[in-house]
Design brief:
The complex is a heterodimer of chains A (168) and B (156). Chain A is of the alpha+beta class. Helix content of chain A is 30%, strand content 20%. Chain B is of the alpha/beta class and 156 residues long. The N and C termini of chain B lie far apart (42 Å). The chains are: A alpha+beta (168), B alpha/beta (156).
C-alpha cells in the first residue's frame, strides 16, 4: 500500500526536471559569478592581486615594455569576491555569469602604463595610480608624489637636514 | 564531438577534493537536473567510461592512482575537470601535499608515463553550480558554444 502512495505523490508533484541548457535558468540573489574588470576604471594598484587567495589575479611587472600587466585566470578563481571588496575604484564587479566551462586556457589581461620617477627615471607604479593618489593627498605632501620610494626618501631626508641646519 | 557517439558514460574520480564538487555532481544526477536525458550515466569502473569527472587538486598520495585510472579509460577519452581545484589548483596551488591542478598532472603524465594529454573541458567554480557542470558537459558534447574567451585590454 505504501508503494502506491509513492505513485500518488509522484503524480501530484509532476515533472520537476529543469530543461537547462535548452532554456535559461534563474540565478539566486547574491550569487557570485565571473568577476568583470573595467580596464578604464582600473588604476593598477594591485590590491586585488594581494588579497587573491588562489593566485588567480597575478601581477607581471614588464619593465621592458613599460607596462604593468594584471592577469586573471578563470580556471584558478574560487569566486570569493574579495577582489571586488578591496578595489578602491570599484573597477571589479561580480557578475552572475556561471557558464564558465572552457577548453585550453582563458586569461583576462589588463595592461597599464608605468609612471617614471622624475629624478632617476625608474618605473615604480602606474601613472593612473599616481593620479589617483595625487588627488587624495593634501597640498603639503603632494610635491614629491612623482618620485620613486628611494628618491622620495632621499629628497625628504635632505630637506629635513637642510631645515634643521637653518634652525641651528 | 561526434567521436563520443550519442551518450557518454562517466567515471567520477575524487582526487582529494573537499567533497562539495562531488555533492554538486550527485546533484546533477538527481531528477531535478537529470543528466541521463543526455545519455550520461555514472559507471563504477574507468574501463567502462568514456569520460572522467575529475574533482580535487590531485594530492601527491592520489597521483599514482589518478594516473592509473586515467590510463585505464579506453580511447577516445575525455576529461572533465570539475571545480577550481582540478582546473588550476584552487587555493591549494602551492601546498606541499598537492600537485596543484590538471596542467601539472598532464606534465607528469607526459614526462613520466609517456601519455599524451586527452581532450579536456574545465569547469571552474568553488563548487560549480549544477547548471555549470551541465554546461561543461554540453560544451564537451558540442551542444553549446564557449562563452568565456581570452581578452587583453591596454588601458590609457
Amino acid at each position: 500500500m505504501s508503494r502506491l502512495s509513492w505513485v500518488k505523490t509522484a503524480l501530484e508533484v509532476g515533472v520537476v526536471t529543469k530543461k537547462y541548457p535548452y532554456e535559461d535558468v534563474e540565478v539566486p540573489e547574491g550569487f557570485r559569478g565571473l568577476p568583470e574588470f573595467d580596464a578604464v576604471k582600473c588604476i593598477g594598484c594591485t590590491s586585488c592581486a594581494n588579497v587573491c587567495t588562489p593566485d588567480a589575479i597575478r601581477v607581471v611587472e614588464d619593465v621592458g615594455s613599460g607596462v604593468r600587466r594584471l592577469e586573471y585566470r578563470v580556471g584558478k578563481c574560487i569566486f570569493c569576491g574579495r577582489c571586488a571588496e578591496v578595489c578602491p575604484v570599484s573597477a571589479i564587479t561580480i557578475s552572475k555569469e556561471f557558464e564558465l566551462a572552457y577548453k585550453g586556457e582563458v586569461v583576462h589581461v589588463i595592461e597599464l602604463r608605468y609612471a617614471r620617477c622624475s629624478v632617476c627615471g625608474k618605473p615604480f607604479t602606474t601613472s593612473k595610480h599616481l593620479t589617483h593618489v595625487e588627488g587624495k593627498l593634501s597640498e603639503v605632501i603632494r610635491e614629491n608624489v612623482d618620485l620613486c620610494p628611494d628618491c622620495k626618501r632621499r629628497v625628504s631626508i635632505n630637506s629635513i637636514i637642510q631645515s634643521a641646519g637653518a634652525v641651528r | 564531438m561526434s567521436l563520443y557517439g550519442k551518450s557518454i558514460w562517466v567515471f567520477h574520480l575524487n582526487t582529494g577534493s573537499c567533497n562539495s564538487c562531488d555533492i554538486e555532481i550527485l546533484d546533477v544526477l538527481t531528477p531535478y537536473h537529470d543528466v541521463e536525458r543526455f545519455g550520461i550515466k555514472l559507471v563504477a569502473s574507468p574501463r567502462h567510461a568514456d569520460a572522467l569527472l575529475l574533482t580535487g587538486p590531485i594530492t601527491r598520495e592520489s597521483l599514482p592512482k589518478v594516473a592509473e585510472a586515467l590510463m585505464a579509460v579506453p580511447e577516445p577519452k575525455l576529461v572533465i575537470a570539475i571545480g577550481s581545484c582540478a582546473c588550476g589548483g584552487g587555493i591549494w596551488y602551492d601546498t606541499y601535499s598537492t600537485i596543484g591542478g590538471l596542467d601539472e598532472l598532464y606534465r607528469i603524465l607526459r614526462e613520466e608515463y609517456g601519455v599524451s594529454e586527452p581532450p579536456t573541458v574545465k569547469v571552474p567554480g568553488c563548487p560549480p553550480k549544477p547548471e555549470s557542470i551541465i554546461y561543461g558537459v554540453a560544451l564537451a558534447l558540442g551542444i553549446v558554444r564557449q562563452k568565456v574567451a581570452t581578452a587583453k585590454v591596454s588601458a590609457d
